[in-house]
Amino acid sequence: MATMEEPRWTLITGASSGIGAELARVFAERGYPLVLAARRHERLVALGAEIRRNHDVPVESLAIDLEDREAPRDLHDMLLERGIAVHTLVNNAGFGLRGYFASLPHERQLAMIDLNVMALTSLSRLMLPGMIERRRGGILNVASLAAFQAGP
Ligand SMILES: NC(=O)c1ccc[n+]([C@@H]2O[C@H](COP(=O)([O-])OP(=O)(O)OC[C@H]3O[C@@H](n4cnc5c(N)ncnc54)[C@H](OP(=O)(O)O)[C@@H]3O)[C@@H](O)[C@H]2O)c1
Prior knowledge:
Elements lengths: L8 E5 L4 H12 L4 E5 L2 H14 L4 E5 L7 H11 L4 E6 L14 H29 L3 E4 L11
Parallel strand pairs: 1-2, 1-4, 2-3, 4-5
Helix pairs in contact: 3-4
């Protein structure tokens, strides 16, 4: 007997602009239902409307500030409340500071670590057990070629 395949919900962080928004369009084109997360909710809603016009996939938009250490857990709980099991996690939200380490604002340096490192780690830790249990899914981390280059 054929079984109904579970929806391949894809959570994209930082979907309100740039690479994250483009990845949302690409996943939607391939039929993946989407959860779009970022701080600028109005942008997520606009992108969700655009995607729904062009593709037959459900789209949820969640406003969240992932620099907040509690945010990954909150996001995870919001998904549980909606009955959404994440099939693919795209850790894309992030930013890079340019300048001298010794003079860049320290709060921004710590915020960068909270977003680029802590949120990515926590979201992966929260989502991966479900993927392993279901024996399906994946995690895509958007990083930078700068990681492979020597810097002064
Ligand atoms: N473009 C490049 O050349 C390049 C190079 C190296 C690495 N990257 C990496 O690629 C990823 C995407 O870059 P991009 O160029 O597409 O940048 P972008 O257009 O600035 O997009 C960054 C995304 O992250 C979200 N974001 C930022 N702070 C957030 C926070 N505190 N909580 C939740 N979401 C937050 C932003 O949404 P909100 O502002 O609405 O929250 C936005 O959707 C980033 O991780 C970036 O570091 C990009």
